[in-house]
Amino acid sequence: MGFSSRKEEGKEPSYFGVMESGTVSQKSENSKDISSLPSSQSSQLSSYTPVKLEEYETSGFSIKKLLTKAKENCNCNQQSVLTFFHQLFPVTKWLPCYNIKEDLLGDVISGLLVGVVSIPQSISYAILASQDPIYGLYTNFFCAIIYFAMATSRHNCVGSFGVLCLMIGQSVNRQLTLAGYDLDMDTDLMANATMNGTVTCNRGCYAITVATTLTFLVGLYQIILGVFQLGFISVYLSEPLLKLGLLIGVCFALLCIIFRTQRPRATLLGKVNDSEIYEDQFIYKRISSIANIKIFRFDTSLYYANKDYFKSSLFQKTGVNPGLVASLRQKAQAKANLTRNQSCFSSKFNCLRGTKTPKASADAPETSIDMHTLIIDCGAMQFIDSVGLSLLKEMRQDYKKIGIQVLLANCNPSIRRLLQAGGWLTGMQDPELLSFHSIHAAVQFAEKQDQTQQTDSVAVANVFGPETEDVSIALSLEEPL
């Protein structure tokens, strides 16, 4: 048996052997193997004849063959039209066979039960998509009618779902913001939009227009992908890949949030000239700082993860570390007392007069600070946890030891309730010191309090004289003698 065909260029033919009985085997390449076989088998092998096998040549594109095949498949007759119509609308095939007596009651009961659930569900889906609630009812009703006529399975359920509505809602909200509408459905129109130059479109009209346009474009993209046979792209989006990608995306988003809240921007604020506005004095021009008052802003919430950064940033920006200042003052006071005691023992007359030796004043380190009030701007803080509240209370006590008061400004109601419940008012006589509603109010309170203290100190100095402190020191040091 042999095969004959035209030889294709560039391809070597394959040689096979054919036995007289019709069995085919490959030709032996080694003649020694034939001689080693028995005589009966060697006679059969010697009767093989080589046969050449060649591949078919690929036929080119032929319009005539294409038209012939199209005529065979596109035979338009009554039966083909009915078949196409039944495939497009399967309801025409199964509805005539529907058993009303056995199936109608069960279908009515199940339809009522599904409707009780689907009506509030469709309303909630419309709200998720930033649409008026009535559009959710329309979507649920017409989807059921269309699927009733064109359904191919009784187990499928069509309609909206939560993830799709959220994605549509994000796009609609973005377009509403760009058009000048308020995102709240209960508010009035913020900007006028016109359709065709005559009809005014309110928020609901503009929102449904955006959603309809988005739905049309998505369907158009799917048709284009189907025409160009690009469905193979979905093969690479396997279920494990989607789960892994979603997990990576969620973890990356959480890490970004944690890192941004751990080391946020911290700065000092200054006052805009002739106004009640306070902004970053390192960014804007014509910002003046307030004498002896520091305003510190922390651009995120205060919680356990960033409490250390809050503390270090505050010390760095203000240039005052209350623990270090208190330690230096204690050392200076101890050294001054030691020097004064030595002077008293050496000269009792100088001690009774209360004179200070020049050496003691010269050796004492300078620990005075140019700040009497620290104002913390809490406008960017959404919440403060228990660790952050403990840090604020601790820092208030530390600053109080060195003569600096700590005030809070721009606190939201939740933070104010937390401060009140957490004991921020402990030791305060005035409840208004809880927090101030604005930075300017806190600045005015601090300036007024500083003026009152200066007036009281001047009055005390006028009554007792400037040497009151030296006399009291001398009397206190005279008793051990």
From TrEMBL:
Domain STAS residues, every copy: 283-446
Entry membrane topology: Multi-pass membrane protein
Gene3D superfamilies reported in the protein's UniProt record: STAS domain
Sequence intervals crossing the membrane: 108-128, 134-151, 205-228, 240-259
Main location: membrane
Family matches, as Pfam families: STAS, Sulfate_transp
An example Gene Ontology CC term for this record: membrane
Compartments, record wording: Membrane
Location of the region described as Disordered in the Swiss-Prot/TrEMBL record: 1-44
Extent of Basic and acidic residues compositional bias: 1-12
Chain intervals with Low complexity compositional bias: 35-44
Key word Metal-binding present: no
GO aspect biological process, one term: transmembrane transport
Keywords: Membrane, Transmembrane, Transmembrane helix
PANTHER family according to UniProt: SULFATE TRANSPORTER
The protein's name in its UniProt record: Sulfate transporter
The organism of origin for this protein: Crotalus adamanteus (Eastern diamondback rattlesnake)
